[in-house]
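TEACHING EXERCISE
Course module: macromolecular assemblies
Task: Read the component lines below, then compare them to the predicted structure of the full complex.
Student: A.B.
Group: 4
Components provided:
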Amino acid sequence: MYSACVMPAPSEPLRVDQFPAPTLQPGAALLRTLYSEVCGTDVHLHHGRLDVPFPIIPGHVSVGVVEQSGGGLRDIEGSPIKEGDVVTFLDVHETCNNCYYCLVARQPTKCPHRKVYGISYSATEGLLGGWAEAIWMKPGVKMIKLPPELTPETFIGGGCGLVTALHAVDMAEVRLGESVVVLGVGPVGQSIVAFSSLSGAGEIIAVGAPQARLDFAKRMGATHTLGLDLPVEARVESVRRLTGGRGADVVIEGSGAPEAVRDALDMVRDGGRVVICGQYTDNGSIEIHPHWQINRKHVEIKGCWGSRYDHFHRAVALTARYGNQKPWREMVSGRFTLAQANDALAAVENRTAIKAVITPNPSLV
Ligand SMILES: [Zn+2]
Ligand SMILES: [Zn+2]
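Instructor-supplied answer key:
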């Protein structure tokens, strides 16, 4: 039997339950969990903001050691995955490659059949979330071996914010020398700053709070920071001043605050691009002036939902290559056991930890 943390229903305290080991078919595996992250989505789940099959075992992005293999495990290069390998895995599973969104629209993140570990599987289906001593890799789950130069702490420090940020920066098509405003300095915003910087952006202006996170964004590559203590008009004015009076070429919203979408449209230059990836749950509405803020500005607006295998694959490669240059590892500011999961959620909600992680097997890390 393995211990796992169960979120029984919105607002109810989490508890630790026992789960039997799954029977492993060929292509399946059981991971011993090293780290599973706690992200804003877990807080939103606990507030009942997403429609999921409670009870659930939370934890979508995780790192573990292959404890047991059902046989026949290979990564996408064809290289075998063996017991003892340290891996992460794409939390999205069962994308069907057989529906309109997969095959015609070619937007697999909108496939209605996709399942996400730690979010859309029920605890009644087994060990399908990362806040557990072990995680059941169903056949077909895409595992990626962490290369030797990539420590698990570096990868989990970026966590799911890494893949979201990479998708958003891809969609923004940041070109060498362009100015980028990043709204939000949580885990998603920090990685947007890092990837914009690695893309060769010019000015990178990070906007958010508190001051410690703005300071951290400078270490990730921000050239300027603007605090939320400044009135919004002053923030917009500062962005203009830093971008030749025009506004930024690109604004990427990763904050979760609806007002940030309005601000993004005020901060972008005429003909610029805005990518919105922070509104993953329903935080309310905001008034937009279509004439002044969109049509007349000739602005391009893109919504970014979920991530694909290619984002995950490249996020592993990028953290391996640049983990010594960008301090993802230091984003882990709180470690919690399964029994402390309620405290972990509170730490993320109260912003006392930029990134909290669950260590279900503390003796292994
Ligand atoms: Zn599909
Ligand atoms: Zn997440």
